[in-house]
Amino acid sequence: MARPHPLPVDPLAEAKRQWLMHGWDHAADGMSLVTSVMRAQQLLLARVDAALRPFALSFARYEVLRLLAFSRTGTLPLSSVVARLQVHATSVSSTADRLVRDGLIARHRDPHDGRAALLELTEVGRELVERATTSLNDEVFAAPGISAEDSADLVAIVARMRKAAGDFADPRPQPDPL
């Protein structure tokens, strides 16, 4: 949430000063990093939530719809959605239940594996996710609040952190597109 007036002191810089003053020098830079990234996440999420509010979508619901819209057929196994969004299966299942309830997706039994579920984007869901994407692009993604160069640097730094945490491996070489 934006403040009407900026604070006279950066609270995160003050927190780092306190860490150093208390003799926690070994952890001060890490504390500063973690709290800075978490605050940036709060700021970005507030903007995303504001852009999605007119569509009655949370970012989690939007991500499921967008992922399905990106697929060739608008249908993906629930397990693929879980893997690609990198969240717990229970969270995706709960989100999918709400999307089904709202008529934005349908859930079917996988004809090849009766134990698995397929999620399918409905036409109403497709129309909604396209309008929501336009809003996010215009209100958040086109101007995230930092320069293009800083954005590229930050994405690269975070990607290295994510890779080290096991989020992904370097992709195998791909043939040139035809």
Automatic annotation (TrEMBL):
One of its GO terms (biological process) is response to stress. One of its GO terms (molecular function) is DNA-binding transcription factor activity. Pfam families: MarR_2. InterPro entries: HTH_MarR-typ, MarR/SlyA-like, Tscrpt_reg_MarR-type_CS, WH-like_DNA-bd_sf, WH_DNA-bd_sf. Signal peptide: none annotated. Residues 30-163 form the HTH marR-type domain. This is Transcriptional regulator SlyA. It comes from Microbacterium azadirachtae. The lineage of its organism: Bacteria, Bacillati, Actinomycetota, Actinomycetes, Micrococcales.
